Amino acid sequence: MENVLRPVIVIVAAVLITLAVGWLVDRFLRRADARRTDTPLWGLLRRCRLALQCVLLTALLRGSYEQAEVFEDHSAGIGQFLTLVLIGSCAWLVVRIAAAVVEASYVRYAARHPDPARVRRVRTQVTLIQRVVTAIVGTVAVAAMLLTFPAMRTVGTSMLASAGVLGIVAGIAAQSTLGNLFAGLQIAFGDMVRLGDTVVVDGEWGTVDEITLTFLTVRTWDDRRITMPVSYFTSKPFENWSRGGAQMTGTVFFHLDHTAPVHDMREKLHEILRDCPAWDGRDWGLAVTDTTPTTIQVRALATAKDADDIWTVRVTVREQLVGWLADHHPYALPRVTTAFATPPDSGGPDHSAPQGPAPRTGRG
């Protein structure tokens, strides 16, 4: 009977202590969150409750399973398993705490700085910092798990002797991966591109949707996702429409007849922009920018607060100005000038051959 009660008592006691400590910690964090409304850190730390309870329960079982005197023939295996679970739980807890701290720092910064460009820059940096911390903690946890096995410790000692050669080989083999890794850090802290920036890459217009240590995702206007290595943005030129601010200037070009009413078009453009909610009112204009033997090129200019609004302004101006010209000034639209040709046998003059001067008569 004692052999049955002892393990049950050990397990139940460990579970009860874990639940009690988890409840006390959660109550403390809830009160701290209610008192400190200026920072979301305490509320975010409450998400770590499950990881904390997992660490506590595993640590209690790891320290008391020998007193339970159950499965004595497999005590070494049980201890090894609990050690591995404890290492993994500690890594999980560290990652959750780091994520809460980073997220709280970003929220406080975003609340104090209304500039969207600076907020996107910080968001990009904290996201990559969080990924770096997760990668480092995961690597250390796996290494710690492997070192719990005696055979791995022996192998590790022999591997240190050839660490230089292995390092060179690994560096050559992972040259592309390491290049992307350092490119990701350069993007994060060099402020080249940020989450939410509007960019044009390989002729595709879109918004930066995700940045990791190795790749970057651009979401296009039709909800496609373009994934490319981050080294692309450090080695090739690209357009960043959000660099220096989200405000943009858009242009619309028209090819019209020489008789187009440019002054009336300018007044109509202003009327269209006044009725367009996407126009921010900063600037506008219309001018003849080029001419050819058959047409003139007219450029309409307008501003908007971001790339999405400038697209709306451009399509609105293009659609309404072309419709207005077709309804009120159709002669201004470009035309193909042609002339009728008279056949030679119709009694009229033959225009197919050049007409030279009439021959002179009389003495030379």
Summarize the structure.
The chain is of the alpha+beta class and 364 residues long. Helix content is 57%, strand content 15%. It has three domains: 2-151 and 171-181; 187-240, SH3 type barrels, CATH 2.30.30; 248-332, Alpha-Beta Plaits, CATH 3.30.70.
Number of helices: 11
Question: Which range best describes the helical content: under 10%, 10-25%, 25-40%, 40-55%, 55-70% or over 70%?
Answer: 55-70%
The SSE order reads HHHHHHHHEEEEHEEHEEH
Q: Strand percentage, roughly?
A: 15-25%
The strand line-up of the biggest sheet is 4-3-2-1-5
So what's the overall shape?
Answer: elongated
State the low-pLDDT regions, or none. Answer: 159-166, 168-175, 351-364
| Integer tally of domains | 3
DSSP E strands, number:
8
On the 0-100 scale, what is the average pLDDT? 76
Radius of gyration: 37 Å
Q: N- to C-terminal separation?
A: 149 Å
Q: Please summarize the sheet with the most strands.
A: 5 strands, antiparallel
Protein structure class: alpha+beta
List keywords for this structure.
364 residues; 8 strands; single chain; 11 helices; five-stranded antiparallel sheet; SH3 type barrels; Alpha-Beta Plaits; elongated; three-stranded antiparallel sheet; alpha+beta; disordered C terminus
